[in-house]
Amino acid sequence: MKPIHVGLLGLGTVGGGTLTVLTRNRAEIARRAGREILVTKAAVRNLDKARALAPELPLTQNPFEVVDDPDIDIVVELIGGLEPARALVLQAIERGKHVVTANKHLLAKHGNEIFAAAQDKGVMVAFEAAVGGGIPIIKAIREGLTANRIEWIAGIINGTTNYILTEMRDKGASFEDVLKEAQRLGYAEADPTFDVEGIDAAHKLTILSAIAFGIPMQFERAYIEGITRLTGLDVKYAEQLGYRIKLLGITKRTPKGIELRVHPTLIPARRLIANVDGAMNAILVKGDAVGPTLYYGAGAGAEPTASAVVADLVDVTRLSTADPNNRVPHLAFQPDRLAADPILPMGEVETAYYLRMRALDRPGVLADITRLLADADISIDAMMQKEPEEGEEAVDIIILTHAALEKNVDRAIAGIEGLAAISGAVARIRLETLGR
Description:
The protein has 436 residues and is an alpha/beta fold. It has helices at 13-24, 26-33, 47-53, 63-68, 85-94, 104-121, 137-144, 159-171, 175-185, 193-196, 199-213, 232-240, 302-319, 365-375, 406-417, and strands at residues 4-9, 37-43, 59-60, 74-77, 98-101, 125-126, 150-156, 223-224, 243-254, 257-268, 280-287, 291-298, 350-360, 380-385, 394-401, 404-405, 422-431. The longest helix has 18 residues, at 104-121.
């Protein structure tokens, strides 16, 4: 049978890994796919560097040459960013080519347009590598859990922030110091904004939410809070209370709508996901039939991500002759059956909270704080008051609440910060038990 011809857009870390895996496992991949999968052309920025990696592969610096090549069956987009990636993917679709991409930013922002174009042309867009690196989470939700009504997803889906939080906990170091070390080791970019501000995780969560609940991509409605304001003090107190802090992407189906949020979260230390350390990723998916399931592995890296890219190539190869109307839909549900469930504003989200405040150690202060919480319909689950340091009149008070509406917590915090006995801002971290 005629081999499938693949054109690579980008031959960097992931592109190079993809070429390596396809070459090394060529025979095994052909056995699984039913025909050979051959890279026949690649678009690169640096020709000399690419020729050292792939001396016999035809190369070009114009990516549209790959997209427009009539002999190429599948275009693999690995250049990242929004443009020219969007234009290249749409042109490949217009030319009737299938697309494999690892570009979570592109899909979160323009996935609706891209999937609609692919549906019209009867081609596939595969994107396993866009979330969780080598973890097959997209396939698990789209196919493996298809019998389930997905209830919620909670995931550590950014390795950089997980590494930073692990180091802050284990070494007692500050965020700033650990970030510098992460940059030195190559875990964090020179500009780490997308990672540490939660934007990268929100791109991935947008994709997971869409395929879990059959809704369009809605990145612009996600609540996003990064880890830059976390202190070593909160990491230490969380540990003392039996919790770990992780940057989680959380999406839930509720009677009022879909929650779509990324923020630091306290998790009970006994949970498996709370013990995922370093740069690793882990994603919990709760289905009504199967219960909670956990997916763990490397969320980045050349060959782990290439593993997902090649898996997509095999899937597309297997299904390339199938009736387009009977393939697995891009967002797991048929395009005419997507739901219109709204994304909840953060104020309507209900969860538990960790609150830390600096208060004068004098009678009546705790009564004022608890009154403000009660007035906002917030009940207390646990409270810890630290002993004052020698010569100081103020102490740290830590409160864990039961589930409460975010808007009520906002109101209570504003009242607490207005008390004369409270100095500075109240630190707030959301808390999820991630149980059944």
